[in-house]
Amino acid sequence: MSRKHLTAKQHSFLKFLSNYVREHGVWPTYREMVDQFDYRSPNSVTQNLNALFKKGFLVREDEGYQFAAEPASAFGAPPLGMSGMGMPGMGMPMMHLAMRGIPIMGTITAGVLQEAIEDNQGTITLETLFPNLDRIFAIRVSGQSMIGVDIQDGDYVLLIDDDIPNGGIGAVLYNGETSLKRIYQEQEGLRLVAANDAYKDIQISPDIFEEVKILGRYVGHVNKNGIYKRSFNGRSQAA
Length: 239
Fold this sequence. Notes:
- There is one protein chain.
- By secondary structure, this protein is α+β, with helices and mostly antiparallel strands.
- The chain has six helices and 15 strands.
- Strands 7, 8, 9, 10, 11, 12, 13, 14 and 15 form a nine-stranded antiparallel β-sheet that branches.
- A hairpin with a 2-residue loop joins β10 (177-186) and β11.
């Protein structure tokens, strides 16, 4: 497929994406791209992504944007199939983890010593931990506003397409930007509360309430230390 010529800014944007994915193994968040190029709005990121897609340098898959084969080779980026970006901040492809699984090799006693029983008992997958996996997606966290519930900068928060109870943790899209917070519905509107005293509450009044979109309810998160599920008290526990 022939490709239209990139502008200098588009070339710089594509090179940044390629270098970032090669170094980190995931796509940058919208905030990281805004900061990298000093954009005034995340809309500039969307415009660049759309331009690279129209000119054939990116393709769209179920998980979002991915590199087309030739730019990946030209810039030394990972091959097709690397983590895409379906929405701001999204990174880890959940289906890849769901398909793999951990083999169950047999049975071992936790009481008195006895002979181990070895047999193939299937695998443990993400669907074992999250029965509604088909409704779950991941977003990469940028910032420290939720460290009080053990969600750190760089973690992948797991969200389910479901309603959020009053005071529950969830992701919202407001004024073109996403935020992960505790969400309270009050007479004055919505109040978004961080799990970090360094961050002030965000109040959303009724006259702009319609502009807020609930993206999903928090059910757990993933980082280099493992997979964590939401516990009964609202904190996270190792899965």
